[in-house]
Amino acid sequence: MDNIKQLLNSLHPLERKTLPHLKEGITLKELEKSTGLKEVEVMRALQWMENKGVLKIKQDLKEIISLDKNGENYKKNGLPEKRFLQQIIGKKEVKISEIDIPKAELNIAIGMLRQRAAIYLKKEGNELLAAATEQGVKLASKESLEELFLKKLPMDVSELKPEDKFAYDAFKKRSEIIKTDVVKERSVELTDTGKQLSKQKISDNFIDRLTTEMLRENTWKNKDFRAYDIKINVPKIFAGKKQHYRAFLDNVRRKFIALGFKEMTGPIVETDFWDMDALFMPQFHSARDIHDAYYIKDPKYGKIDEAVMKRVKAAHENGFGTGSKGWRYKFDELRTKRLLLRTQGTACSARMLASKNVEVPGKYFGMTRCFRYDVVDATHNCDFNQTEGIVLEDGLNFGHLKSLLKMFAEEFCQTDTVKVKPGYFPFTEPSAELFAKHPDMGWIELAGSGIFRPELTKPLGINVPVIAWGIGIDRLAMFSLGLKDIRDLFSNDLNLLRKMKVTV
After folding, report:
1. Which residues pair with 13 in a beta bridge?
2. Among 90, 229, 277, 416, which one is most buried in terms of CB atoms within 10 A?
3. Given the DSSP bridges, would you call strands 418-422 and 383-392 parallel, antiparallel or unpaired?
4. Vertex 97 angle, CA 94 and 100, to 5°
């Protein structure tokens, strides 16, 4: 009994208004009428009480017959056949043209009355005359089955009596008199708790909230206060928030800036020169096979600083005084101007090194969108994000690079269990790959890195060592966000977007 009392004290005002009217099998429409509440208010009260175990909401599909446009008119003014009879009763013969019924209804009325032998027709010259038969007089003196049926609507198809079925079938053949719709009818089934609760008296000495006026005038004293159930299910609120991957990238950017790095950028539509040639990748070498580039058809070529291009050309052809012999081939100056969608973020590093704004010593990072032809699946995409960076300072060596890589693992993977293995990249020597141990997925490749070759840095005007790295940030985000499909990073699925946690 104490539980029933506690439950009674926790009811919302809408529930308190609905409770006295509850009985087994009562419908939502009946509750609307008896409580005076709106449909949405009654439904809300029932749902809350269902959550509390007071009742169950049953839902049945029913075929409901209701009046259509013409049916509303005929219920108010009478069926056209009845109005026709009323105008000819007691008269010998009446001209059809003198009967006050709209032309569209007149033909229907004549057809119905002839079918029931209620009138006879006679043609006289160009006029058609009508007179009522004895059967017609009888029909005019009482309500027909069809008229009685119109007064009963709306009603359930399953409740049709034989005489109603006759009228129903007749009206279905006529235009816009009745319509049949499948509707959901909700009704209440009380639980044992609900049966006990419905017997309780609703207190009038009850308040839901305190106001400043109550506190000022002490009118809250000796009142019953509503108890709030903080464990009950409530509707979820989907507030506006950043897209999960966007938030992750912003967090990575903040970490780099906090470490003292400056952000560098570059165009998505890049030239072959900055994307590959300036990185000392030979124009006709198989090393370019890993970069399945999307080339631009129109315009096909871009512009390049001629002075920088000549120095890079010399590096390819003869080493540009670096002690290297270069690749020893004829550098194609037209080919290097071809436009493509950027295949790697390292193009931004090359642009930064050649920029007049580069600082020595300096630390730079970039977060770039890159494009390579690939088969899209759970771990591959044809466009992806890449995070890369460079540090340039006199005296830098491979030990500095290893320490930097370990710091990245701690910052971005929250792990100090790392491996640095030898690797190959066309523009670094030595080259290394960073692996970090994921608690669930084991060892994962996190970054590629190395020290830029002098054949790359010297033509761009840099005469100090440059350590560089590149991180596949999309996969790193998958691990961080708990996703197993790379496509979910860019998904527009509302269910996924709503359930993803975003850390700011």
Report:
1. none
2. 277
3. unpaired
4. 85
Q: Which two tokens stand for residue 477?
A: 């985000």
| Global confidence as pTM | 0.57
| Contact predicate 421/396, CB 8 Å | no
Class in CATH terms, 67-181 = mainly alpha
Q: Where are the alpha helices (DSSP H) in 276-375?
A: 306-318, 346-354
∠ CA(212), CA(217), CA(223), 5° rounding?
Answer: 85
Radius of gyration of the chain (CA): 42
2-60+183-225 domain in CATH 3.40.50.970? Answer: no
Same fold, 2-60+183-225 and 67-181: yes
pLDDT tens column, 73-111: 889 888 988 998 888 888 888 888 888 888 888 888 888
Residues with Cβ within 8 Å of 133's Cβ and at least 6 positions away in sequence, in order, are 117, 118, 119, 120
Alpha helices in 226-295 (DSSP H): 244-258, 272-275
Location of structure tokens 């419905």: 198
The CA distance from 486 to 471, in Å, is 15
The region, left, alpha or beta by phi > 0 then psi within -120 to 50, assigned to residue 328 is left
| Among 226, 195, 220, CA closest to 14 | 226
Over the stretch 284-305, which tens digit does the pLDDT of each residue have?
876 566 557 889 999 999 999 9
Smallest Cα–Cα separation from 387: which of 261, 241, 260? 261
Closest C-alpha to 179, from 144, 154, 151 = 154
CATH number of 246-499: 3.30.930.10
Pick the closest to residue 293 from 269, 327, 264, 323 (CA basis).
269
